[in-house]
Amino acid sequence: MSLRLLHFSILPSAGLARVATALGKYEWLLFLHMTGAFLFLGAAVASLIFTVAAQRYERPSEIALILRLQSYVIPAFAIGGLLLLVFGLWLVDDAGFSYTDGWVIAALVLFILSNVAGAVGGKRAEPARELAERLAPENDAPNTELKARMRDPAMLALDYGAALLGFAVLVLMIWKPGAGG
Predict the structure, then answer these.
(1) pLDDT value for 1
(2) Fewest C-beta atoms under 10 Å: which of 52, 89, 155, 180?
(3) Structure pTM?
């Protein structure tokens, strides 16, 4: 993309049609794929932030609030994951790579594992949220069972693992080991 096209693409008077025609198919596929990546990984980071934040509080009402907020990132996971997968696979074809390239297969496997780990970790967090919501109106005092559920090693390993696997996919997308060039 030339500097001239970039310059006109950021001006409001240039119009969306002019910007759309200035970019080729590859650029649009890449833009949509990267949008999915930002949504997916942003949701992973936000989810981890909510998990860490919930562990720092004592009162069940505070923990319940944070864990409910965490549920709002689920649509970003879904939309981001869909964009990432669909446009990523389309890019593999459009850019002349093969679906059997090692980095493509590894990225798909890691992406699937990231999704599974995140879903299982999220399911393991539900009882903690439900307990926090039940305890909040009762007396809203710190509870050892709730604290233990918030520090469940399996849940934390799955949550952190899901995020790390997602970032490993990002590394493969940038590095493309074995792709040459």
Answers:
(1) 47
(2) 180
(3) 0.85
